[in-house]
Amino acid sequence: MKTCSILNWGESWELEYEVPLLSALASDIESVHTDLKCELDKASKECIFCEVIRADKIIAKICVDEHESGQPLYSVYLGSKEDEFHGFNKMTIISILSNYTDALPVKL
To answer: Can you give the residue ranges of every domain in the chain?
Structure first.
């Protein structure tokens, strides 16, 4: 995982919240799945994503927001059929990733 510092992008994102959580999740993913690499995607205008890459294909994109309960709520977009998972449990996200080998559509 590439280290991503909190940049001054001039956007209304909550980078101080999102970047550390996504960086920690990316490290956890890479420690469990040695065939996966994670990179933070800074190109999106809505939020920051963690891209999950297997064999040079982006198989998933993950973003995080603070739920009204105060917990981090992760949204995961997976595979060519654009499956979605929304939840609080990082280990569930990590286990789901093992089921996907096909790339996300380019439009996401």
So the answer is: 23-97
Distance between CA atoms of residues 105 and 31, nearest Å: 26
* Tokens representing residue 48 in the block: 């920051």
**DSSP result, 24-45:** HHHHHHHHH-TTEEEEEE---S
DSSP 5: -
10: left (phi over 0), alpha (psi -120 to 50) or beta: left
Convert the pLDDT of each residue in 32-86 to its tens digit: 999 999 999 877 666 789 999 999 999 999 999 999 999 999 999 999 888 999 9
**Beta bridge pairs of residue 84:** 77
Residue whose C-alpha is closest to residue 10's, from 40, 34, 45, 39: 45
6: confidence class by pLDDT, cuts 50, 70, 90: very low
End-to-end CA distance of the chain: 21
What pTM was computed for the model?
0.83
Exposed/middle/buried for 81, CB within 10 Å: 0-12, 13-18, 19+? exposed
